[in-house]
Write a structure and sequence with these properties.
Chain lengths: 410, 219
Amino acid sequence: MNRAHKQRPPSLRPRRVGMTLRTFLSRSGIQRWRQGELGVLPVVFGLVVIALYFQSEQPTFLSARNLSNLIVQIAATGSVAVGLVLVLLLGEIDLSVGSVSGLCSALLGVLIVNLGLPWWLAILATLATGALIGALQGTWFAFVGVPSFVVTLAGFLVWQGVQLSVLGPTGTVNVFDPYIGKIAQSFLPGPWGWILGLGAAGVSMTALWVARVRRRDAGLAASASVALAARSILVLAVGISSVEILNRFRGIPTAGLILFGLVVFFSFVTTRTRFGRYIFAIGGNAEAARRAGVNVSGIRIAVFTLAGLMAAAGGIIFVSRLTAASTQTGGGTFLLEAIAAAVIGGTSLFGGRGSPWSALLGSLVIGSVSNGLDLMAQPPEIKYIVEGAILLAAVSVDAIARRSRAAAGR
Amino acid sequence: MADDNGAGKSTLVKCIAGTHAPDAGTILFEGREVRIHAPDEATQLGIETVYQDLALCDNLDVVQNMFLGRERLTNVVPPILRTLSELEMERRSLDVLRTLSVTTIANVREKVAALSGGQRQSVAISRAAMRNSKVVILDEPTAALGVAQSAQVLALVQQLREHGLGVILISHNLQEVFSVADRIIVLRLGRRVATFRHGSTTPEDVVAAITGARESGRL
């Protein structure tokens, strides 16, 4: 094999440099749709429909103030959903993230209020606790062989119990620490918002074009410049309009910035690193990954650890927003909203397909519905029914897409 | 290697590939006696096995599958951050596929889920051939394929041979065996019952050995 290669130096003839727009569309768009790789289109479409509906019912829905509120409201769920996306990519599930968030919020409150720890130390300890819980559950799943569904269902109860005992008989700890409060209650000053928004859009646009040039130089097929220009314009438009709208109220919410940062970071990790590649591989075919030499147990434990860490981060944001940790924190519909957010955003429950961006998009959908129904003064029962129906619809789209994928594989 | 169901070829393959420990006997590799206890020991010797299930990840594309477990990395921030060298892996994949004359895969960034059975088999075999291997074991590579796709895979087997790799092909299909094999070994009830050279035998002789109509072959 090697010999053969030396005789034939890798002088690649650039066979198909630069696709035409038509082949790009037929290759990346229609074909992918037929194969059930739906991407973000369904959820973006859903988001637009939801926004238009609530706007027509309640003209304040799309106001700068309400959108800013919406972002702060989804920051906790979104962060937890980012961790869940990683677990779902593995083809597993973590039902304990709500309880872990609750426990971590209680812990944060007790550490600051009862033990007088400085805010940063309390945050570090809380994050470490979440990660440790995740690592424990991941290890149990990977080495004892108990399905993740069961391990984390047990965790769901256990950590809720620990949360209640940490909070003690009063059941509530009020956290008035100014630094903790800043996480969910501060905003980026207007000019900084512009610098950051335009900077992020610029970096991602540059990355797109650099990647194209490098592919062309390597003699590989690169996407059409028209398609790339369209994507760049889209990125820029989303960046400018977000900053403009949020600056009309009080600026970009810090909590929203944290969520965005987490999404960008984990999106990098899942697509550009070997660790991320292995998460996808295990979610697609764990046995194939194992035979290829992937440390399947190690990756599984690491992912559950990250899910625990993100659950803790969500709990911290929660405490900051409500200035309290209570027995309700992390309970109720919190877990299901986080799972729904990940799945609605386009991450498959069947493993191996999805992206951290789906946590952001999905929590925007769930958050919009919740926020819109609140604006319309609908009672909680309606909210439960609507959210349940949206979750079912999203998973159905996923299941149908999976079937058409199976049909497309000739 | 040709045999009937249950004759012991899978067990033999597993022993060579290191996933199953042999009860007795020795394995000679390049004239040396070797002991293979684990799959990676076989890989280190240059023995690659393509199992019937192919061990591909449907949700990954061709390049990602070919480099699974052996990703090429770029040092971005040396000890901390290493990213995947996608361009290098894609070029190398294209190179390997072209060297092996695999023309059926038009787009190496296509997900394996969208490929046909023959294309998948080609990906799995090319992956095995790419990894500095000396011997490639193929377990029933055409069992699930139609006529045209079987022909593609057999052409690939020929390519491997021309590039100097040893190929152990396990098959029920005598027509196929005769079209690519240099040496035909018949197993029956866990034992080698016959070894034939291509060109000095007929399918009837091989069938006779497989069914046990005649116990000893020409050795």
